[in-house]
Amino acid sequence: MVNLKGKHIYLRALEPKDLDFLYKLENDTSIWEISGTLKPYSKKVLRWYLENAHRDIYDVKQLRLCICTPEDSCVGLIDLFDFDPKNQRAGMGLVISNPEDRNKGWGAEAIELLCDYAFKVLNLHQLYANILEENTASTHLFEKLGFVKVGLKKDWIRSSSGYKNEFLFQKINSHAS
Predict the structure, then answer these.
(1) Which end of the chain has fewer CB atoms < 10 Å from its terminal CB, N or C?
(2) Are 31 and 51 contacting, i.e. CB atoms less than 8 angstroms apart?
(3) Which residue numbers delimit the N-acetyltransferase domain (predicted)?
């Protein structure tokens, strides 16, 4: 049995009450570079997104979960994206919204919980993560959790300061059939 509850956080599905959190996070221009966002989201669009968030990962090829504290405070989001059931893989993305909430172990715990779910429930063979070369904190985090740096995509992300390199990390499910 896979549990989406850890020692310090738990993962849960998006709910209508998350609209304001999602609105703030999706419109935070400091993370647009890594999320690929090009324009602000309206509450109307995000409300529609939340109304459809229940759809199955096999249908929409994505799973987005809230990272919550035991006090039910949503501190971030963790995603599986580009879900590929044929090749049994998916990308993984993570964001802790408030910089003051980072480096508390919540991201690591969320990644461990989602890896366990992806490997045991979805029977994935591998997960991957794309991390900007300059993001040493995320690089360290994913390496600590067993992801292996397998490549460098040069000039991959265009930013206001020029092009940036992005690492590709993979974690292979050693227990997969």
Answers:
(1) N
(2) no
(3) 9-170
144 Cβ partners below 8 Å, 6+ apart? Answer: 108
Residue 157: partners with Cβ closer than 8 Å, 6 or more residues away: 33, 34, 132, 163, 164, 165, 166
What pLDDT, in 10s, does the model give residues 147-175?
Answer: 999 999 999 998 888 999 999 999 999 87
> What confidence score (pLDDT) does residue 177 get?
54
Rg (CA), the chain: 16
Here the tokens at position 64 are: 């987005």
Burial of residue 89 (CB within 10 Å: 0-12, 13-18, 19+) is buried
Whole-prediction pTM: 0.91
Domains (range + CATH), the chain: 10-124 (3.40.630.30)
pLDDT tens string 88-128? 999 999 999 998 999 999 999 999 999 999 999 999 999 99
Query: What does DSSP say about strands 126-132 and 89-96: parallel, antiparallel, or unpaired?
Result: parallel
Beta bridge partners of 63: 80
